[in-house]
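Fold this complex.
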Amino acid sequence: MRVVLLSGGVGGARLARGLVAIPEVELTLVVNVGDDDQVYGLEVSPDLDTVIYTMAGVEGPHGWGLAGDTFAMMDALEALPFDSTFRIGDKDAATNLFRTDRLAAGWSLTWVTTAIASAFGIAATVLPATDDRVRTKLFTPGGEWLRFQEYFVTRHHTDEVVDVRFEGAANAKPAPGVIEAISVADAVIIGPSNPILSIWPILAVPGITEALSQVRPVIGVSPLIGGAALKGPAHRVLTSLGLPAGNAGVAKAYDGLLTDLFVDKADSADRTRITSPRVRVTDIRIPDLAASTALARQVVGLL
Amino acid sequence: MRVVLLSGGVGGARLARGLVAIPEVELTLVVNVGDDDQVYGLEVSPDLDTVIYTMAGVEGPHGWGLAGDTFAMMDALEALPFDSTFRIGDKDAATNLFRTDRLAAGWSLTWVTTAIASAFGIAATVLPATDDRVRTKLFTPGGEWLRFQEYFVTRHHTDEVVDVRFEGAANAKPAPGVIEAISVADAVIIGPSNPILSIWPILAVPGITEALSQVRPVIGVSPLIGGAALKGPAHRVLTSLGLPAGNAGVAKAYDGLLTDLFVDKADSADRTRITSPRVRVTDIRIPDLAASTALARQVVGLL
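Structure:
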């Protein structure tokens, strides 16, 4: 069973971990790169790394980095006149240093990602949405366009988001393999990631939305529990951009692309509120591998 | 007593540590940047860091990096398809990451170096020879121009050096403060560094040699003991470039610039062999702080 998962960071990564544990599933991930940035001169790809680390079961406890990592480098940076808000562990730095070095040497992000996924023993194809530079920018009431990492890490996603753009997306091409994987997929799943900040930057790459519209089913898993994200600003960003609150907003954000939407039991009322896509109610909390695998089985069990 | 020390890495750094321990000495270092390079996307300045780490008494045991550093980042890189010959410890990576980030932000190398020296509590002014990009390249019988780090780290300085050039030097300007420090110095010392690979790239920056020629004394400390470098290829490079062997070659490499040259007891015969500069014979081995300070006192005692 060929499955494509569109994913941002933590939520999508946890569903990926469940999907990759199902032997019948040939999994291809198409991962958001709108959060990518240069930090301390390092090329960081937070969602790609979170997906790979989580599928390997070695992700850090707070939604970034590696479990049990040390911070000798960051601690040494404390002595220097330097804003070290963005914490990178020593082992995590190796991943970023590898990517920085290889991109500078002319490798594509796809090649770099394949090498990292392989080093972590991932039994799935992990693709960036694009090898081109797409950068999510957020407009706030302060009148500034913030880079994603500024918004999310430095300012703790407390700013209201009144507009969003994906710089570079209009001229980006899908990474090699993305359209091919979607076009032969038995199902596409849109993971429980922030629709606007994690999935829109994927859909903004010309060709991807068109390819998805040719595939059935396209199954969404809501990032909301009881109308709000467990972590992060997904529900706030939906409404501040003028979309409906809750899962109605999630459905609307995907604008007819979904055939099905999994929502949590806490949001079972959405079954009657939302007429399209078809709403499926289950326990979508996936705090551990067992829950991830159970949800993944339910989602692909539809096929 | 205002003293300027021209320095490469280990040897010059050890003399610097002795000089900075003498309360009467106001020390300005002018440090080689010809070995600087981009490694894994990081801006490395090996001689500047060695000088700072050594003066702080926290230098690594093998002539690079920091004492007691960990290598979690390098160990993690082993899992990736990556040439990790150039080892950078986790704390040492912080220095390099800081420099990379700040240079990218538009700071000069002088500013970056001042901040690093300050973080390590160095009571001397540490200046790069230039804020411009100067890169030492070595021509070998293999017909290749090697970057310094390729020659030194990757190939363990085993290639014969038949020519040398300092890319960018002709258009480089001395870093702010270099000419000023030299022109008011009571003495300039050229440290026990490789004359050709560590000191020539400093002298190649237009204005520095001219400024030195106005100052007396200019005191060299030989990098040779018994005609050979304790570490590194200094003696081999002298002869492969057609200079005399031993301290005669050191004197010749500085081409009339020195007023005095300190040589080791093992080379006391050079006192009669070399007519200019004046040869001073003493114990120039400086394996520890006590020896460094003793030699430094002798050298500045000349004044």
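DSSP finds 13 helices and 14 strands in chain A.
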